[in-house]
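Q: Could you fold this chain for me?
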Amino acid sequence: MKMKWFSLALLTFAGLLIASAPASAQGPMAQPGPEHEWLKKFEGEWTCTMHMMGSEHPAKCSSKIELNGFYLCSTFEGDIGGMKFTGRNTVSYCPVRKKYMSTWIDSMSPSMMIMEGKVSNDGKTFTEIGEGPNHEGKMSKFKSVTQLKDADTMHFTMYEVVNGQENEMFTIDYKRKK
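A: Sure. Below is the predicted structure, expressed as C-alpha cells.
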C-alpha cells in the first residue's frame, strides 16, 4: 500500500513538474508549413450544387483557416429532398504522417468519417481515402476527389469503395461567392 501511494505521488509530482516547465524548455512552437498554405485555396464563402441520384440540391459552404494556421475548418449547409443538412469538415497536413488528414461529421450520422490524402504534383487535385458509415449505417471505405478547376471553382466527387470498385455516390460543384 505504501509503495502504491509513493508511486502515485511520484507520478503526480513528475506530471506537475513537466506541466509547469516554461514553453521555451519544451522546444520551439510548431509553425504552419507550405502544405498548410496550400489549404488557403479553399478559404471563403461558396455556393454549391450537390448532384445526387439524378437530382440537384442547393447548398453553401463556409471555409476558414483556424487554430494557428494549421486547420481548414468548413461548415456545409444544404437541403436534400426537403431535409436540412449540416456538415463540418476539418483538414490539416500532418508532418509526422507526411499526409493530409481530415474529419467529417454531419447531421445525418452519429459516426465520424476519417480520411487521409495527398495533393497531385500540379496542386490541382486532392484525393483522400478513409472509412466512415455508409447509407446503411455500416462502416465502409470511401474515396473523395476534389478538382480545383480555377481559383473560384472546384468539383468534388465522393465514392464508396466496395470490393475494390469505386461507386460514385454524389458530386458537388463549388463556386466562390464574390
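A (continued): The beta strands are 44-52, 55-66, 71-80, 83-94, 99-106, 109-119, 125-133, 139-150, 153-162, 165-176.
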